[in-house]
Amino acid sequence: MNLRLVLLVLCLVGNALLATALLRHGSNSPRPAVSETKISATTDQVESPQTNAPGAATITGTPDFQWSQLETPDFAVYIAWLRAFGVPEPTVRDIIFGAVEAIYRPKRAALRPPKKPDDGKFWVRHNFYGADSQMTKAQREQMRALQKEESDLLKSLLGQDVYQQRAKDASSPDWTDRYFASIPKELRDKVQDIDGRMNEAKQEIYAAANGYVDQDTQADLRTVEKKFHDELAAVLTPEQLLDWDLRHSDTANQLKNNLSAFDPNEAEFRALFKYQQAAQDLNPPRNPDDDPAPPTADERKALQEKQKELDAGLAQAIGDDRAKEYKLEQDWGYRNLIDTGVPKDALFKVDDMKNQAQAAAQKIRSDPTLSSDQRAQALSAIHTETQNGINGLLGDKQGKRYFNQSGWWLNNIAPASSTR
Which H or E run includes 397? Predict the structure, then answer.
């Protein structure tokens, strides 16, 4: 138990006892009367700090007081005595959390595999998923059961909102409201259980893959996610399920990672989430081993038309400029320009130059009146003119960086060697 916290409580208790002693002319204060409510979990007594140790604070007025007068393995009685002596409620919570933690910490530690000694081989690949991935499925299930048991005990002792109260004590935001949002309190334990079992199943897949996530692993992960998503759909309303997905799904998390420069508002994020979900359904990952036949020409054309419909719907939802900005940010070359501080209007101009150059090149390639030499010269001229225009807009340094990272499209118009 934290020494400062113990001393604080001792001071409070000492003052109370001293006041009582003065009023009663030196009579001893008995323990407060409390109901002997029993619970199953108990803790070993914690020895009181030695107040005569060098540098320790001196508590006067209660020379016969011992911490054991308050401490008891019955948590319900312990809490009642602390409250009866006027210990502030946040301090009561700190004391009981520490005492309960002392019970469950060694139980959790016993489930974790021992850490392997450092062999000094810094060049050897280590498991990215951490020590818990080395636990067996049974051990992880026991770990989850212990965590739930500890949480249930604390809630039964200090109230169902004890974690919210602890956050308030620390002047921290209430993570539960942000995490669960519109999900009613009576459903949160059930939702958290489903989410926990999904993460456990995914952990099993990662452990089996030993960190190598190939197409088969991705397919297994999608199967698990769908299974537990269906469970959530049976518990939540469509609105609640959407709200959960916007906060916790892989699609939402991927969007958050990719939209740092775009900085969407809530309405834009919801529109982009809907767009991304539809795009993933339209183009699911394919495993060539399972489905070796490529799409036919008609299938590709149908997919292109559906993609155009999705793009048009996104532009209608967030505006043409914002939709164009979003698409540019998905391009690695443009993303790097954004990260180096290139203004967004300059990115639009670069993209316009790209589209104009590709359209002009296509027109030249399809012109039957041009000879091979004339066609090559015209394409080379487009290459040179476009490259000079982009360098003039971005500057030679940024232009060179852009073409080195994303200049494939310009070399497809005419190879750089042919423009020299």
Answer: helix 396-406
Q: Could you tell me the end-to-end alpha-carbon distance of the chain, in angstroms, rounded to an integer?
A: 76
* CA separation for the pair 114, 131 (Å, rounded): 9
Task: Mark residue 55 as left, alpha or beta (left: phi above 0; alpha: psi -120 to 50; beta: remaining).
Answer: left
Q: What's the CA dihedral at 64, 65, 66, 67 to 10 degrees?
A: -170
Least confident interval from 230-244, 286-300, 312-326, 337-351: 286-300
- Give the Cα separation of 343 and 346 in Å (integer): 5
Burial label, 385 (beta-carbon count in 10 A; 0-12, 13-18, 19+): middle
pLDDT > 80? residue 265: yes
Rounded distance, CA 233 to CA 105, Å? 35
Say whether pLDDT at 221 is over 70. Answer: yes
Query: Residue 278, Cα to own-chain centre: how many angstroms?
Result: 23
- Between helix 137-158 and helix 89-111 the angle, nearest 10°, is 170
Torsion-angle region of 211 (φ positive above 0: left; ψ -120 to 50: alpha; else: beta): left
Q: Which amino acid is at 47?
A: E
Q: Please give the structure tokens belonging to residue 290.
A: 């399972």
Tell me which amino acid residue 129 is.
Y
Total-model pTM: 0.64
Dihedral (C-alpha) 103, 105, 110, 111: value to the nearest 10 degrees? 110
The alpha carbons of the chain give a radius of gyration, in whole angstroms, of 33
Phi first, then psi: give them for residue 269, nearest 5 degrees: -65, -40
